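Chain X:
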Amino acid sequence: MNHFELALEEECESLKRHIHGERSHLPQRDFARPSLYSADVRSEIDGNNSGMIPLYNFQREGVEWLSNNTRILLADDMGLGKTVQVLSAIERMIGDRRINRVLIIVPRTLIGNWLDIASRFTPSLCVSACIAPEKSIDYVWHAAYIHNHVTVTSYEVAQYFSKAASKRFDLLVADEAHRIKNPATKRTKAIGEFETQRMWLLTGTPLERHPEDYINLMVLLDQNKFSKRDLNRGLPTLRNRAAPYILRRNKAEVLSQLPPLTERSEILELSEAQRKSYELVIRRMNNRNHLADFNELRSVCDFDPVTKESSKIDRTFDIINNAITDNESVVIFSFWRGLLKLANDLVNEKFNDIPKYLLTAETSSAKRQELAAQFGNSGGIFLASGKIGSEGLTLTRANHAIFLNQWWNPSQNHQAADRIRRIGQDKPTFVYKFTCRNTIEEAIKEIHARKDYSSKILVEALSETISTS
């Protein structure tokens, strides 16, 4: 049994105990002037360089660290500008003629975001996307390769790149690298076959579920130093061995000027109808399919399947009313479609004079960015799938985030919350998380606490052992 299966079995056992009462042909560009201008020299830049945007000190340190290392993991907290740091480092290294061509692999939904940030922060770079079906990938990627410094593509397309093609890139960047933590998947195998001297992995959540996730990323960077055997050495030892490969900063350390965060974990009572339905599910439970039983219990915590009553939505309306009174905006996350749809219907009915936006798995990549931009301009209420809304969106117009439910994996919840708490936020932020009393959600909360503890030991303490000087 592998570590993933073992962890899943442990969680199921924990939930069962709880339920039962127990708890180069490149165009020539001018690289003479670097893009890393500090705020105090910003005024000296002439009008022709008005596109240059100053970086924070910690971002400049990140650019320096990236530029001087080869196979590394940038694990900065979500919202600290990993994309900007990487593009600025690439611009510097191409300007110094240390590298020539770069391949950046990202989730498909984030390709537009990378292109947008490149156009604003590093306009001297030639950057384009490579999106094509398998039968025409060779032609499309070759055209992108010939005419650009940087090619941005998706994990799906990268799987079709030939081994010969991979050798032509001087640097491979993998964004949201937690997506390649499983060595058995096609996308991870494809990344492992790229023969490049330089590989930069980017993720704010290097440990999502189990320390094995962390080890798998380190093996991608240096298979001669890391292996599954490192799991037996203990988390502190593993952290120290990995420290030279990783740069990790969190918001509290580097953004002292960021407004305060208040996290409110609220215990709610099920409505009478919800409680009856919940007890009915427990009486019907059997040992055939634990996951199905757990999901049915969790669903009843969201809303009653018959009456549609929901103590969570009742509480959400209270929060929205208070926010509207203060002329503030709200983001609502649900990791399950049923409650997201119900919340959207009820919000539209109750708050018909407030701008509202809905982001689901069916929303196209271009539409997602459009909705985020519209929300940034007008504010209001933004309802989003927790899985889809947790990556690549800036929603700092809102300073209230409501989690109607939470994913099994706490890092996914943290990523979603960081859509509103990131660079650009100028108001105190409030994150609300609901747990229904005497239900399976209390057990899920305990699982989150254990996983957060492991992450703190292995990841969060990295800033104490890493020097960026």
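Chain Y:
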Amino acid sequence: MPRYWMRENLAQPLSMSCMAEKVRMSERTFLRRFTQSTGETPARFVETLRLDQTRTLLATGLSLKDIAAQTGYSTSAQLSKAFERRFGMSPTLFKELHCQEKTAHTNTPSAG
């Protein structure tokens, strides 16, 4: 399955059966081949794509609810739980730290 297709469809439900059907394989064959090819399961791969997109969108000012909808999570609570499990902090804390870091770089006077 093209990884590009997965990236372009993050907001959609990407179940194993859906992905296997897309490439005309049984679920078992798809799981085996995908895992051999990428080193991770399709579910883990999709979660990584979704959480990477979440980190990008947190800097845009969108609400967590909107980010959840754009990245394929049913609720902001579901997104928060996955984010915290992966990164060890809530999306809100990540956003605060990320924005604080950007502000510090922006407001640093340049030597001259």
